[in-house]
Structures are given as C-alpha cells and as structure tokens.
C-alpha cells in the first residue's frame, strides 16, 4: 500500500512542465461505491489531484469522507495507470489502485485497506471494465467487478451515462451477500456542464441482499476542475 501511494506522490511532485496537472473538487449528496452508500446516505466532499504525462501515463490521489463503519471517517486512494489508442475508435486502459481508510485509533480503519487492478476497453461511446481485488475491503476474500458503460450524447453540454455492473465474491463466506456471492447494480445519470461546473444527476439501484445500503436512491453531484 505505501509503495503505491509513495509512487503516485513522487510522480505528481516530479511532473515535467509538458505534463498536465489538475485538481477536481466534487460535492455529492451521497457517496456511492458500485451502488452501495459509503456515507450512510449523507453528503461527501471529494477532492482529487491528477497528473497526466501526455503520452498515456497517469496518476492520481483522491479522498472522501466516509461513514460505513464506526470511527472510520476518511478514504484516501492512489491510482497509477496507462492508456493507449489501439485504433481511432478503440482505447485500452490498465492500472492499479490502492484504497486506504482512516479514523480513530479504536476503529482499526486500516483493516479495510486493499489494492485493486483494473482493465478497461472502450469503443467509441461504449466501455467495458474489469476490476479485481484479492483482499476486498480487507476481508480476506477475492472479488471482481464487470461493468458496462454506454454514453448517449444529448446536446453540446449534456449526455446520458448508462451503467450496469455485477460484483462477485470468490469466497462467499467473507461477505454478507446472497448465497452466490453476487449483486447487481444499475445506474442512469444525466451529465451536464453549466456555469463553469460539471453536474451529475443520477438514479442508482441494486439487488444487494442487505437493506438500506443498496436501496434505490437519487443523488446530485457538482464538480469543479482546476488546471495548471
């Protein structure tokens, strides 16, 4: 975990002048992780720092307040990856991320920490993604996610983003889910740019077996990106 975070920090601090560095601040009414609330349906403030080399390499740091376990208050993530155009219409993106959690000493928040690898393949406005973690949320069990994204342009400053994904646990005794260790999540989101801000109005639902956490919900997020 420390190696991934340190690597991302070094990349961001040592970025050459030709690279792009930006920061985005998001305020959302509900932090949803594959359709599951990680803030008890409360709002979240989510800043990020992102670096792009201009030739495919990228790295990022991201943070959010959380409230899914007593005493755990902060999520801090690091990502490093590489994307390349296979052709004018096809894009391949691979990378690794480290999720870390922080809170009071008695909360033992670091027990939730886990690394994850991902691969994404895009064709025009369609994207297929795959994520795998061998120790998902520190529970000691493997987990993978397959997701399909479809963007539908509506007008110059707005589009629809349709998402459907399946989360699967390879060790069902490690997670409180249905007996087959899976759940499904679907989302429809309207994305728009207005007044120099990026807005997202979304509806999410799941068939997650535990009530409350995966219930259907509507969320609103507003984001501002600063580049230098």
Structure described in brief:
It is built from 1 helix and 14 strands; from the N terminus they run αββββββββββββββ. By secondary structure, it is mostly beta strands.
Can you walk me through this structure?
The strands form two sheets. Strands 1-4-5-6-7-8-9-10-11-12-13-14 form a twelve-stranded antiparallel beta barrel. The protein is mainly beta and 228 residues long. The protein is built from one helix and 14 strands, in the order H-E-E-E-E-E-E-E-E-E-E-E-E-E-E. It has one helix at residues 2-13, and strands at residues 20-28, 32-33, 36-37, 44-52, 57-65, 72-85, 90-103, 114-123, 126-133, 143-155, 158-169, 182-194, 197-206, 217-227. A hairpin with a 2-residue loop joins strand 10 (143-155) and strand 11 (158-169). The longest helix is centred in the N-terminal third of the chain and has 12 residues, at 2-13. Helix content is 5%, strand content 60%.
Low-confidence stretches: none
Tell me the major beta sheet.
Answer: 12 strands, antiparallel, barrel
Helix content: under 10%
Structural class: mainly beta
- Rounded mean pLDDT is 91
Q: What sequence of helices (H) and strands (E) makes up the elements?
A: HEEEEEEEEEEEEEE
% residues in beta strands: over 45%
Widest sheet: strand ordering: 1-4-5-6-7-8-9-10-11-12-13-14
Q: Let me know the number of strands.
A: 14
Task: Please tell me what the overall shape is.
Answer: globular
């Amino acid at each position: 975990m420390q190696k991934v975070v340190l690597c991302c920090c070094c990349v961001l601090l040592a970025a050459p002048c030709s690279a792009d560095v930006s920061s985005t601040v998001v305020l959302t009414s509900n932090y949803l992780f594959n359709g599951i609330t990680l803030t008890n349906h409360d709002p979240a403030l989510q800043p990020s720092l992102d670096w792009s080399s201009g030739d495919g390499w990228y790295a990022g740091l991201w943070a959010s307040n959380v409230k899914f376990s007593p005493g755990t208050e902060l999520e801090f993530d690091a990502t490093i990856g590489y994307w390349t155009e296979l052709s004018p219409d096809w894009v391949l993106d691979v990378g690794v991320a480290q999720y870390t959690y922080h809170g009071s000493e008695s909360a033992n928040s670091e027990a939730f920490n886990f690394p994850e690898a991902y691969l994404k393949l895009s064709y025009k406005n369609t994207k297929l993604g795959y994520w795998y973690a061998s120790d998902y949320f520190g529970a000691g069990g493997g987990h993978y996610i397959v997701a399909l994204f479809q963007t539908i342009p509506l007008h110059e400053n707005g589009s629809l983003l349709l998402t459907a994904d399946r989360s699967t646990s390879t060790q069902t005794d490690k997670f409180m889910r249905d007996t087959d260790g899976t759940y499904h999540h679907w989302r429809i989101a309207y994305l728009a740019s207005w007044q120099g801000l990026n807005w997202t109005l979304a509806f999410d639902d799941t068939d997650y077996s535990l009530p409350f956490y995966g219930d259907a919900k509507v969320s609103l997020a507003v984001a501002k990106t600063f580049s230098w």
